[in-house]
Amino acid sequence: MYNIKKKFPIIHKDQNISEAIKKISKSKIKILFVVNKKNKLLGSISSGDLRRSIRKKIDLEQSVEKIMFKKPRYFKKKGNDLSSFKDIICIPVVNKKKEIIDLEFSKNLLNNKKNTVFLMAGGKGSRLMPLTKKIPKPLLKIKGVPIIEKIILNFMRQGFKNFIISVNYLGHKIKKYLGNGKRLKVNINYINEKKYLGTAGSLSLINLKQTEFPLIVANSDLLSEIDYNNLVDYHNKKKADITICGKNKFFEMPYGEILGNYTKVNAIVEKPKIYHLINAGVYVIDKKILKNIIRNKKLMMNEYITQQLKKNKKVFCYPIYENWIDIGNKIDYKNNR
Question: Which CATH number applies to 113-336?
């Protein structure tokens, strides 16, 4: 049996989907190769496979065999050119026993992306008062680094360099801290909201000619490890007008639930867990549907999306399995700082 190197992105067939999520979240290449006890290649699991399992509400305690792709590509010798393989980041090299002995990587593993990233940083952070009385919420620190800086650095590490930041409350402090982005090796431009425009109203002030689409839009109080390249690819493949990132969150009811109607009882479930797909506050938006937003008028994102749905625009959900933290109140901030 070939001794697989520890750095190889592998997972054993008996491990569950939850383990796959943990492993792939830590991996830069966002793919795992499934092997048996003898380290023979059996399949592969991509971030897309994990998202499909979330969409189908597959039990995350099930074996990875349930969701793996059973016919993965592989090479039988080293020194291969991956340029002809579109959207392929990594392909394993196997021996005669089909054991993984090496990996071949695409030379285009990380390219600079042209897409503009729009960060909404104009809110007052009322739920975090008095912490935000003199400091805007995006500049509150997590592990010694301002939230908005962590967000920008995460995008930058994935190849995104062009940012627009919409500011209002204590916006001058955000502009003074981040400047033009040179210190962080990115380009930052600002939109100054004369009045608070909500979570979507500031989109009306974008210079469409100087913005690269599709546009990634994100709140400035969210920390996440979302694969933004995969998100944009998903949006483009779906030919979507808007793509909304959705996160599965479960809530445990503190009571036993009676199943049945109001007279006949079929069962009682003790403290059931209820799953909801929530809006994760990250979006991809196409250029053509931004043209009709009324300038300088307050507009919330849920209102804007509802308007687009009524116009029969293509709105898709992109399920995320990656870590996601909403710094929305003092408890969340205290638990993560």
Answer: 3.90.550.10
